[in-house]
Amino acid sequence: MATFRLGAIASIATRIPHQNVAKLQRINLVRRMATGAGPKKPTSTLGLAVKGMAIGALVGTGWSGYSYFKGGPTDHMLHEHVGPKVLDKLPDVKIMRKVVNPNDDSGLDLVLFQFQTCPFCCKVRAFLDHSGLSYSVVEVDAVLRQDIRWSDSKKVPILLAKTKSGKYVQLTDSSMIVSSISSFLRDKKQDIGELAKYYPSISYENDAGRKVFDIMNKYFLMYQEKKVDNRTKEEQEEERKWRAWADDHLVHLISPNVYRTKDEAMETFEWFSDVGEWGIHFPKWERDLMVYVGAFAMWGISKRLKRRHQLSDDVRSHIYDACDRWISEIEKKKTTFHGGSQPNLADLAVFGVLNSMEGCQAFKDCLENTKIGPWFYAVKERVLKNRGNVL
């Protein structure tokens, strides 16, 4: 198994004081045994509901990545890293649907915990579907989140993957999920549980005294000694660059655009309810809580996100610029996709983020004012063609 590439820490090293960088490089980033924290004491449904009324929309959309703190150059690292959590068995949750592909020969047993319209969840589904994998889906209640009480992570997506030992390893970051599963598919003799150990969490404490985590090496694929990737080093670096761009830039343009006005926020949440089948999977009062509280709260939160990411009042112009920049890169290659004749992981990452707002007015405006449409629907066609049957 490949050892860690220290270059992968560059994205967070800029947030660590210089004197801590040397210490970071001396840390053994791979624990041979995964650690697992015990479950938290369940909170009452009433208490969770009250909390949901206060911050319902933020969790209601599942766009948990927006609440993840982006540290500054004065942050300092705590000397703590955590391997993936391992469960003896699947949690007692309701599987709401399955995607079954009769041509899937991976041997993987996967369960995806998600919000249907979360851009990070859309990224993972786009990858799983394009890869022709079978998986089960648990649609998490966006406010109460009872189906992930068993997990220390309260963000989605969470992917549980069965290991060779019969236990389930928890994968908790969309880019890490894609990288670890992609690594496995390139060499199926590997154990997904062992691969997951190459993507540990490392903790920081920001200036406000809050501990935050980042996933190491999440844009890197891990190989055995044999060569399983025929691309050049430059092509692999380019793919990682644009995957990171989707996470660090593009995704932060979604919320200020789809919640630009109160009417757009309500329209967006009604679409979320339809595409996520909230009326089927949740009681009416829960569905209404997610829609009405969520829409109002996210309309307000989107204003703060706009300021945080230094966007002008004309938020549409920023997402138009992002779409134009992405298409410009593909046009330089003179290919259908960034990956050439087939979508690569960068294509699927950008597609997944944009797919999260496909039913919103913001996406319709992007189709009318940029050239994103032909590429977007070409990727969508490949994803749907490879996807299994939805049961």
UniProtKB/TrEMBL annotation:
One of its GO terms (cellular component) is mitochondrion. GO terms for biological process: prostaglandin biosynthetic process. The keyword Lipid metabolism applies. SUPFAM superfamilies: GST C-terminal domain-like, Thioredoxin-like. Keywords: Lipid metabolism. It comes from the Eukaryota. PROSITE patterns: GLUTAREDOXIN_1 (PS00195), GLUTAREDOXIN_2 (PS51354). GO terms for molecular function: prostaglandin-E synthase activity. It holds the Pfam family Glutaredoxin. Has a glutathione-disulfide oxidoreductase activity in the presence of NADPH and glutathione reductase. Reduces low molecular weight disulfides and proteins. This is Microsomal prostaglandin E synthase 2. It comes from Anopheles coluzzii (African malaria mosquito).
